[in-house]
Each structure stands twice: as structure tokens, then as C-alpha cells.
Amino acid sequence: MRHYPASIKRLIAAMTRLPGIGEKTAERLAMHILSMPQKEVASLAESLLEMKQSVRLCSLCHSLSDADLCPICRDPSRDTGVLCVVEQPADMAAIEKSGAFTGRYHILQGVLSPMCGVGPGDIRVQELFDRIGKGGIGEVILATSTSVEGEATAAYLAERLRGLPVKLTRIASGVPMGGDLKYVDAVTLKRAMDTRHGV
After folding, report:
1. Cβ(84)–Cβ(105) under 8 Å?
2. CATH T-level topology, domain 77-181+186-192
3. Options 2.60.40.10, 3.40.50.1000, 1.10.8.420, 1.10.3720.10; which CATH number does 6-54 get?
């Protein structure tokens, strides 16, 4: 990399700080950007700066938004009585892509992880209880991951929400469609057996 000018080296170094971008990928991207027309490079730079300056958290669900409320919270056709609790905005995006949910969301912005010093006060737990306390929510769907932290977070929330006048459900998990049983890990198989249902 010594043969590149300093400006290219700086760009490559900057891009390697992005997740999943190694030096070779960063070098390819830098060469591609270098070959792009000036207008496209300016547009890319402008988009990055605009995103950084305008994106914030939705004041209601804590998803990413460029206004006080995100598009989902502003959408009057969404079912306000069903609340899906997820860890991160990317989890909400995955559910939205499926088209299987038409309610509202609550993004925790993390999971409980005592080993890493993350407790209920470090994620959006109190905001969730505040939303439920205002009324109008009939069902809370816990859609945290099946990792140890995700399960612990779901168990904690279930314990705290028990006794409130809301139906509490947990998303199903198990063997994926088209999955070959011999390649599925033991924890997933156990979960699939424990949550089996009638046909």
C-alpha cells in the first residue's frame, strides 16, 4: 500500500474501520470511488454527512428516524394495540421485510448483559413500561434474539410485565424452512421441540 498517495491511504484506512471491511475490500472501494465521476463522489459524501446530521431516534419507539416520529409511528394504518419489542432497528427492519406484522414497535437499543455491565437502566426498558402504562396496548410481543442475552432480556421483561393487563407473547423459534435437521444446532432443536404445536 506504500505506493498509493497519502489521500488514498487515508481513505483506505478510514474504510477499514467500518465493520466487515478488510484492507483488500477497502482498497477495492477506494479504487472504485476514484473512478467515479466527481458528481457521484460529491453525492456520496453529501449523503453520508446528511445522514449523520439528520438521523436520530424516534421519540416514541426509539427506531432510527429523520423526524420526531419515525414513519411507522406516524402511520395511522398501523395497529396501535400490538407492540413488538426488538433489540435493534435492524431487527425491526427484518420483521418489516417479512410483511408479517402490522403493529407498532419498541426498540430496546440493546439487551441485558450483566457480564458486560448492561442492566435495565442502560436500555429502553423504562420507556417500554411507560408506554404500556399509558394504556391502549393489548398485546406485547417479545421478539428478542435467542442468544443467552436475548433470552435473559425476554425473561426479565416477561417477569416485569406479568400481572399487567396485556397479553404477553414470545416469537416462535426453531428449525428454519428448508433446514436439514443434521445441520441444526442442539439448542435450536431443543427449542423447536419445546415449542412444537398441533397440525
Report:
1. yes
2. Dna Topoisomerase Vi A Subunit; Chain: A, domain 2 (3.40.1360)
3. 1.10.8.420
User: Would you give the end-to-end CA distance of the chain in angstroms?
Assistant: 61
Q: What is the mean pLDDT of each run of 10 residues along the chain (199 residues)?
A: 87 95 95 96 96 94 95 96 95 90 95 90 94 93 89 93 90 75 74 69
Q: What is the pTM of this model?
A: 0.80
Q: What are phi and psi of 168, to 5 degrees?
A: -115, 125
3-class secondary-structure state, position 14: helix
Helix%, strand%, coil% for the chain, nearest 5: 50, 15, 40
Residue type at 12? Answer: I
